[in-house]
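Design request, tokens follow.
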């Protein structure tokens, strides 16, 4: 019986489950977002947010704990040098889970898990993306400029 157990096993042994979560965490940090089942995304969120918290600490012990779990030095370096500094001021909630659709083969609920953009990225995107003016507005603006000149 699984009374008072807090983690899902996905019908796998403990070793297989740990390796699966480590591989999914590596892919998640490498690509920034991945598409998986909703249950796996919810379980992956725990591990990913723990790794970002270790990255925010940034000391050698935290780096060793991250390498022990993820087993990929390149991804751990990316986590500690690029991803974690974006969330220095944020206390948790580094990931977002979006419900996508249903998988055709077995009707499993699919989800997209992605990193939440930091405040600096939002400001950059906000300044860059302005709605293009419609042709009528652009034409009327050009006429006004010609009349003024």
């Amino acid at each position: 019986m699984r009374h008072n157990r807090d983690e899902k096993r996905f019908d796998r042994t403990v070793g297989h489950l740990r390796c699966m979560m480590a591989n999914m965490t590596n892919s998640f940090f490498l690509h920034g977002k991945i598409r998986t089942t909703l249950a796996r995304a919810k379980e992956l969120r725990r591990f990913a947010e723990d790794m970002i918290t270790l990255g925010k600490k940034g000391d050698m012990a935290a780096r060793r704990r991250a390498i022990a779990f993820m087993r990929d030095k390149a991804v751990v370096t990316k986590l500690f040098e690029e991803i974690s500094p974006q969330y220095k001021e944020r206390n948790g909630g580094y990931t977002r889970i979006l419900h996508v659709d249903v998988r055709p083969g077995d009707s499993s609920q699919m989800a997209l898990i992605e990193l939440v953009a930091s405040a600096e990225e939002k400001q950059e995107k906000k300044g860059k993306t302005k709605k293009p003016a419609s042709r009528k507005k652009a034409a009327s603006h050009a006429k006004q400029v010609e009349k003024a000149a």
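Comment from the thread starter after seeing the answer: thanks! The chain has a mean pLDDT of 88.
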